[in-house]
Amino acid sequence: MHNPVNCCVIIPVFDHEHAIAAVVDAVLRHQLPCILVDDGSSAPCADRLTALALAAPEQISLVRLQENQGKGAAVIAGFKAACDKGYTHALQIDADGQHATDDIPRFIQVATVHPRAIVTGQPVFDDSIPAIRFYSRYLTHVFVWLNTLSFDIRDSMCGFRLYPLDRVMALLAHQRIGRRMNFDTDILVRLHWQGVQVINLPTRVTYPADGVSHFRLWFDNLLITRMHCQHLIGMVLRLPLLLTRKLTKR
After folding, report:
1. Residue 12, H or E segment
2. Regarding beta strands 198-205 and 60-65, do their DSSP bridges make them parallel or antiparallel, or are they unpaired?
3. pLDDT, tens only, 165-188
4. How remote is the C-alpha of 213 from its chain's centroid?
5. Is the separation of the CB atoms in 52 and 36 below 8 Å?
6. CA neighbor of 62 nearest in space, from 46, 44, 76, 73
7. Does domain 7-249 have CATH number 3.40.50.1000?
8. Which one-letter DSSP state was computed for residue 243?
9. Whole-number Å distance between alpha carbons of 150 and 182
10. Could you state, in order of their start, the residue ranges of all structural domains in the chain?
11. Where would you tag: which of 87, 130, 186, 192 has the fewest CB atoms within 10 A of its CB?
12. How far apart are CA 250 and CA 233, in angstroms?
């Protein structure tokens, strides 16, 4: 039987030179090709990425953005590279080591059974998560549940997920998705609106291996707030469709 999942791993990287080698090593243990996207990193990280790509050219591809454009822009560049290479699916994972790479086979197994769905991580946090981050996530959860009229997306902020690339590229062809820290939630909500099934997979999350966070408190919160407002308007415009879909599921 033909395997419907030909998957690569996309890792957006911005100045995570201390953690990225361990993340890449852990990913490669699962025999998956890896696309590293350098999001305008400084010289130490850029040099580390070059060294990793040269050390395993058959397993690692390196995409470079000359200037920092944001996590979303980096992942989107990875999507395009994955499509050019003929992959059907892409697994996104963060560069700082917070995600449990041992769960990668579980994501692949679910996607093999449900190749048209998004398989997204539902974080199981340990004590390393700052309390303010843990509780502030729930504000976004509530907005997402409201704007999708469902609890289908348990956590829209987890950057550990597996996408069907055809559905992603179809969305990107006509919709601009958030390019920075608003990306993870924005693309998940909009794909859900398109009728793409979301499968939540519990996975352990720790904070983070190298102590580096690129979340800018005021700027990124402003982007996320604007995104929620746009989603609210989008939900209202799609209300008949969303209600019909909700009633059909019963």
Report:
1. strand 7-13
2. unpaired
3. 999 999 999 999 999 889 999 999
4. 16
5. yes
6. 46
7. no
8. H
9. 20
10. 7-249
11. 130
12. 25
